[in-house]
Amino acid sequence: MFCEQCEQTASGQGCHQWGACGKSPQLNAIQDLLVYCLRGLAPVVLQAKSLGINTHNVDVFTCETVFSTMTNVNFHEKRFVEYIRQALAYRENLKTQIQAISNVPSAWSEISNFQPDFDGSLIEQGEQTSLKFITESGGDVDIFSLKLTTIYGLKGLASYAFHALELGEEDEQVYRFVHETLVAIDNQNLTLEDWVNLALKVGEKNYRVMELLDAGHTKTYGHPVPTSVPLNARKGKAILVSGHDIKQLAALLKQTENTGITVYTHGELLPAHGYPRLKETYPHLYGHYGTAWQNQTKDFPRFPGAIVITTNCLMPTHENYEDKLFSVGPVGYPGLKYLPNIDHGAPDFTPVIEKALALPGFLEDQPPREVNVGFARNTVLGVADQVLAAVKEGKIRHLFLVGGCDGAKPDRNYYTELVEKVPSDCVVLTLACGKFRFFDKQLGEISGLPRLMDVGQCNDAYSAIQIALGLANALNMNVNELPLSLILSWYEQKAVAVLLTLLYLGIKDIRLGPTLPAFISPNVFNLLSEKYNLKAITTPDEDLAACLG
Ligand code: FSO
Ligand code: SF4
């Protein structure tokens, strides 16, 4: 196998024997086979679109299935075999429709005629497509690097597009771009410059997708407002919801009304508490339990109720909690109970409710403890005058955006230490699961503003970007001239998509860690550092001194 799409890739060079995430070589091969089939489907979809054939269900399917190949989303080979069958069925159906209205018979390329042998080993066939993909780059390390950057960024974009769609927000141009990019992977004539441009185009389109997602969240649930979230449990039956999917959380809240069950968020769902309409409608959405995704193996066994995982990152499950764990959407694991959508894009959560009622729940109230969320763009830009006055008066010397993913590696302590060492006249904005390294620290206030502000999930990167652009606009300066430093942590492909968006927007001096992506070749990294001054993190002291210098 070969996979180097995430930060924990083996030895920082690629997983060859077994995925450090728990992905087997067999699963990797089947996932590669699915991507190959989607690449063959894409030209047919584009041709269908040009003839005015409705491809919406295929567009949605493509986003969902690309999402499912991301790190720590779906470990279930069977689901991927179903996806492959479905991709081929869509492809052949579209071909028939095209044939019916087009006078000229279409000559499809090899990839669009590819037919796996379902009686043979799909794993071997997947391995062949993986090998083909590697050799297609003709040994050019930099083009290969940019191809991987493009595909990995596209995976992140597809996952955000899937979330936006769930909330009723979509853009045909985005779907078209997804298919065009899958087609471009096959193009042997693109130069290094073309590939750089395509990778940045992924960033550009991802910006649009994140705007849609922001619109979906804020139109449906209102703009997040500062909200204090209990970190202590209260007595009673309980359900824990993890992942990013606020729509699925809302569906579960609706189905658990009047059951007496208390609902807690886990991981990236913490910011859900900031959405006023969600809190007002469902008072049994109570608190937050546990920390980041990689701590599921500690948090889940201890939780005395049922658990639902809505998106990545799913840790390979463990027998001491898998009986009470359920997955929905694109998430899966062999043996894990999966709840398919049945009605208005939501599953029937009855098995989760029954499990929660059968489990003991919390036997007593825990001592109070809380964190604050809800510092998204509307809140922060709503006090922009206050922020800017504090900056002008020198009360706020600098802003740090410390955001991104968490993970198991000990070198992620860098982010905790950095936040602890940020001088008291500086503000820290944060988003995504990396914040769990410091989210409950009491950093106090400056001029009535909290020194630690949680913008939201990684899905809310759009909001963080709007804050930066809004402040720059108010100060009449370029965003790169703001007293703001971006110190990012990455783990999987959503973070790749966000990084490409930041580069597309021309944002410079980003510090990235805990290690640089293995798929970025030295030449490609030099190119990015020359153009954008992108750099690797060093030590908290050194980086703080450089940012404040
Ligand atoms: Fe974290 Fe996982 Fe949100 Fe990622 S839970 S690591 S960038 O999936 O998506 O931040
Ligand atoms: Fe390795 Fe990451 Fe790929 Fe898993 S997703 S196989 S850990 S590179």
From TrEMBL:
Binds 1 [4Fe-4S] cluster. Binds 1 hybrid [4Fe-2O-2S] cluster. InterPro entries: HCP/CODH, Hydroxylam_reduct, Prismane-like_a/b-sand, Prismane-like_sf, Prismane_a-bundle. Its cofactor is [4Fe-4S] cluster; hybrid [4Fe-2O-2S] cluster. Its EC number is 1.7.99.1. Keywords: 4Fe-4S, Cytoplasm, Iron, Iron-sulfur, Metal-binding, Oxidoreductase. Transmembrane segments: none annotated. Pfam families: Prismane. This is Hydroxylamine reductase. HAMAP family: Hydroxylam_reduct. [4Fe-4S] cluster binds at C3, C6, C15, C21. Coiled coil: none annotated. The modification Cysteine persulfide is found at C405. It comes from the Bacteria. It is found in: Cytoplasm. Catalyzes the reduction of hydroxylamine to form NH(3) and H(2)O. It catalyses: A + NH4(+) + H2O = hydroxylamine + AH2 + H(+). Hybrid [4Fe-2O-2S] cluster binds at H244, E268, C313, C405, C433, C458, E492, K494. GO terms for molecular function: hydroxylamine reductase activity. Belongs to the HCP family. Signal peptide: none annotated.
